[in-house]
Each structure stands twice: as structure tokens, then as C-alpha cells.
Amino acid sequence: MNAFVIKSWTASDQPDTDGNYVNISGRAGGLVSWVLNLLGISPTVSLIVRDDRIIFQKGSLREGSLNFITPLGHKRVGSLNLPGNSILTGESHG
Description:
By secondary structure, this protein is mainly β. Helix content is 10%, strand content 51%. A five-stranded antiparallel β-sheet has the order 1-2-3-4-5. A two-stranded antiparallel ribbon has the order 6-7. A hairpin with a 3-residue loop joins β4 (53-60) and β5. It starts with a strand and ends in a 6-residue tail after the last strand.
């Protein structure tokens, strides 16, 4: 199993300018990877969460890049109106 070191991360309930709610970037652990990181050529991994998909990216100079994209299901809306009560259970998207 590979261990990774987090290089940067952001998380918010509002999307950033790229539409990302979560963005975690990392590199492989170990001394060699640390030296490659100092030189700016270390292999990187990223986990990105957007409103409609989750993206896992892996890239290196030697192996190129891989992108795994998992679409998220549609969010559904529901509201229940009862006499004297109104319960909102979601928002409508697409």
C-alpha cells in the first residue's frame, strides 16, 4: 500500500472558482519523493470533489497521467406539506 503526504488541501461548503468543494493534493512519501518534490518533479495525486463528480488524478513524468472520474447521482427534491407544517427535504438540481 502506498502512503501519501498531503501537499495542500481546501474544503468548503461553497465551490471555489474552479467549482471544487474539496481539493486534496499529495505526493508519495519517502526521502526520494521529498527530494523530487524540492526539484518540482515529484509524482502527484489529487482528489477533487465537485457538485456532479469526484475526480482522482495521478500524474508523473515517467508514467504520464491518469484521471478517474466518478459521476454523482442526481439530487432529488422533495417537500412534504402537511396541515400546519411544511418540511423541506432537499433542493432541485438539474
